[in-house]
Amino acid sequence: MLIIGCSNSTKIAKSIARRLGKPYSGLSVKKFPDSELNIRFMKKVKGRDIVLVQSFYDNKKTDMSINDQLIEIIFAARTAERLGARSITLAAPYFPYFRQDKEFHHGECVSIKIVAHLMNECLSRIIVIDPHLHRLKSMYDVFTVRSKRLTADPLIADYIKKNVKNAVIIGPDWESYRWAEKTAEIIGCECAILHKTRYSARKVDVRLNKKIDLKNKSVVVVDDIISTGHTVLETIKDLKKLGAKKFTVIGVHGLLVEGALSKLKKAGAKVITTNTIAGTTNKIDIAPLLADALKKK
Prior knowledge:
Layout: E1 2-5, H1 10-20, E2 24-31, E3 37-41, E4 49-53, H2 66-82, E5 87-92, H3 111-120, E6 125-129, E7 146-150, H4 153-163, E8 167-171, H5 177-187, E9 191-198, E10 204-208, E11 218-226, H6 230-241, E12 246-254, H7 260-266, E13 269-274, E14 282-284, H8 287-295
Parallel strand pairs: 1-2, 1-4, 4-5, 5-6, 6-7, 8-9, 8-11, 11-12, 12-13, 13-14
Antiparallel strand pairs: 2-3, 9-10
Helix pairs in contact: 1-8, 4-5
């Protein structure tokens, strides 16, 4: 097995390689002035099981967009196949387009199905941490190659146990129910969900589904993806009306776009994320999850 760190995930890839005791190699990725990409393997891949480690999010440091990174993986997988790799696995801490899982308006593409088709054509296996399976029931609804969904629930629960006293877990909406409830079950604490009515991308009304005693409690808002942070901000406002004063926001995937982090901090929340997406809020390491999954054939 050869662990290959792609443009967004060299640190995680190196950690996985150390944990598995397997060789590591970087992937040479060049972006030309006209935005075309060129990739090159730095070690021989013939006859080896190749693991491409890549998380998909806009990276200003490398000037690589999500779509650049998808092309990078397609180029790498096809090249590895041509060079005689025995198998090609994509280990993706965060995989994009799962939220675009249906035709919301007539004439729209169903993005995740198209992207998954491209992956099916060039990979042997794909492993993803907490994909946003809202309307989809499983990874196999879109992937035909071997696929595995991992969850950061136990890691998040362990963080809360060690760092948050008197916790009560709140899910911002029904989409986040699985994360909030499972996390609360592991910890053995109270859990509640907020109803969400979305009027537009930035106008959302949220209401608590049941009355809970928030006195002297540390509210932990748990969600899979924190993007603009608007839903979480509305959640915090709503809970403050119920007497909550101390907030920790935990997300599996911290996209944190449009100034979300500063807005959440201004609202009085401590923001914690896993390292599926690199950032200053990373406190929970998902490398052990991927390493354990890669041990299994």
